[in-house]
Write a structure and sequence with these properties.
The complex is a heterodimer. Chain A is of the alpha+beta class. Chain A has three domains: 115 residues, 2-Layer Sandwich (Aldehyde Oxidoreductase, domain 4); 183 residues, 2-Layer Sandwich (Aldehyde Oxidoreductase, domain 4); 347 residues, Aldehyde Oxidoreductase, domain 4 (2-Layer Sandwich), CATH 3.30.365. Chain B has one domain: Ubiquitin-like (UB roll) (Roll). Helix content of chain B is 35%, strand content 12%. Chains A and B meet through helix 1 and helix 16 of A and helix 2, helix 3 and helix 4 of B.
Chain lengths: 702, 158
Amino acid sequence: MAKRRAVGKNVLRKEGREKVTGRARYIDDIPFGNVLYVRTIRSTVPAGEIADIRYNFDRDGFTIVDHLDVPGRNIVALIDEDQPSLAERTVRHVAEPIALIAHSDRTTLATADVAVSYSETLPTYDPERSEIAFKQIAIDKGTLERGLAAADVIVEGEYRAGHQEQLYIEPNGVVAVPENGGITLYGSLQCPYYVHRALTVLLGLPPEKVRVVQTETGGGFGGKEEYPSMIAGHAALVAMKAGRPAKLVYDRVEDMLATTKRHPAIVRHRTGVKKDGRLTAMDIDVVLDGGAYATLSGVVLSRGMIHSSGPYRCDHIRARGRVTMTNTPPNGAFRGFGAPQTQFAVETHMDVIADRLGIDPLRLRERNALRPGDTTATGQRVGKDCSALQVLREAGRRTSFSRRRRTLKGTNRGIGLSLFFHGSGFTGGGEVKLASKASLALTERGVQIRVASTEIGQGTRTMHAQIVADTLGIAYDQVDVSIADTAMVPDSGPTVASRTCMIVGRLLQRCAEDMRTRLGRMTPAAYFKKHGGFVVTKQYEKPPGLEWDDETYRGDAYGSYGWACDVVEVEVDPITYQATPVAFTTVHEIGRAIHPMLAAGQIEGGSSQGLGYALLEEVVMRGGKMANAQLTNYIIPTTLDTPPMTIKILEQPYKHGPFGAKGVGEMPIDGPAPAVVNALRHAGVVVSEIPATPERIMKAKL
Amino acid sequence: MRLTVNRKTVTVKAPPLTRLLDVLREECGLTGTKEGCGEGECGACTVLVDGEAVNSCLVPVAQVQGTRITTIEGLGGTHPLQGAFVKHGGAQCGICTPGMILAAAALGPRPSLDEIRTGLAGNLCRCTGYAAIYRSIQLASRARSRARSKGKGQKAKA
């Protein structure tokens, strides 16, 4: 192999120029001729039966679509098949789509009056009282009762987290174009093949008649994982019926009202500890609010449960979780995917334990942190790349944590930390089931990467090109990246689960290794000139030794884990009760930073979202409807809310990751909330629910 | 109505209360200006009006007659901020980037960190946590200073 030239360097982002000049084209920027604009008629009640729909306008020039127009099956195909594309009789949540109206003139469309009447039924809002569970999970390690019997002290706690909106700055949007007896769908999305499958099912079309093309995407964070399948279906139904392109781009209010959010959670802990701080038993109960339909809730719960005992060694664990149905808009994927909720709980609980025992929080974690060779809650033996202790010590050293804690005691400033981990790739047997593929083509210009992994800001194109360039021993600039178009790229699986670098990047590395062998001593250009181009495709192969049993929830839950520790200082205003993070330090161990600046960008951005989750971002639900569905009163961190951040990346290579890389995208959002709440506790404010708004802090103080 | 957009005079047909954002995107074809919220909270639609950063979603086009409007396309691609945003990670998904760069341009050539934080408080970015944006702006200032001192060394030029 030639000397590495790109990996580990901050090469220029592939589409950087386009993004800073305004030339990058997002879905709303692309002109389509003869286009119909689409408006979604949505339920205004949380539960009931549709009694009547009246279209009080002159239908001339309008295309109207309801469930009777669905040529295939009226579902948003994902995991369960419970969610209709358009409601037939029953509605289960406010903003549920019922019908679509479309017109070429936006003003005419906006003013058209549609009246829907309902016979309402009693809604359920409390996830604990809900009688419908989408999924239940049990994890057992050792014997809980034995662990509790061995304890000197038993500490209990209950922790709650609210919804969180992904708030990508570009709202959801798609354009459907009828062509060649099928549909081509352009849109802002994370997972082209999810949308592809959903459209074939909804439209009753063979796979080759559906083409999905990702356009430049202005952020996703999970919010464009499953929802684009819904909105794409709607545009496609209109386009098929009208025989014209149909455009559906949400405005901010509609996006916030209707699309998925992070699952609210209630987590209870009952923990046995020795006087010296050793954990002897962890009894954990998790309830997630799934909203009205299953979407991805079952897998969100799964990741949440696997991370629910934190990065700690404990021989006796019993964890029970369920995700239940309520009459609110369905919750779904959001960066972290269940782990932010459960690690918020366990990490907050660790400080409660530390307080009870009178032990420094850092020492308590040091005593219990997983070491190489220890087993997780599912019995997975963590490898040499387990860095829980290293990140903890590094963060403690950099912030002089224990000394600072003594210095700040009794002031209105507190310091708190959180230790956390995050599994890279799909949970359990997920990657085997996905069986992702990636291709590399030899072209006239050099080589072209063909994957369905999308660039949504995180740097997919750039990082993949670095891996390929160095594996082939060619210049970074000679590596092109195809757009994620299902007519051109194989199914590399969804762009989620911190898998794009570790899993898809490794597939590309294997493609490049093969291509290197085939090229022999020739350069790609010389080979192309003599023999013409060729394509190498590789499919996921399970690394040897990785075993998982989905029935018992035992085994290797993930190929590898990233490890991190956050330390935050928070100041509480004694008059307004506003808490402001004033300093933030994080140490992340991610295997190998292919592009250190992009990796740091993920850590800074994810941490900032985590601080918003901790302190600012509150979804207010009234009558099953988001009451603050606009940026005026759903507050995300601005420049002034974001403290200076110190980021340290450690590298402990994972042998099955490309150049040792593990995942990095999600982990940063797991840590800030508990670190903030622990800092508040240190400042004398005991809260157990996030966001820790001034109202909650005032209640805690009074 | 006549407007000056990116140093060119354009005639627009839109009714006077049309949002400047829509006129720029739809009549002028300048889609580098983005809509993020439509209520002046996110700053994705920031443009410069006589050098000052404004949210074009809140400005009726009638109000900007006779002014000089600059959009991201008007920076031409050679502005030091544009290069710095690519080089130092200021742009991730890119949707806030045009507005962010224009808001930064309005701060003058060498803003302090405090001036940057305050000046960009009306521009939301969900990807970066802002740190890389600060670095991009500060390193653009430095690049500009270097270019200037180098230029002075070669020949006296305004």
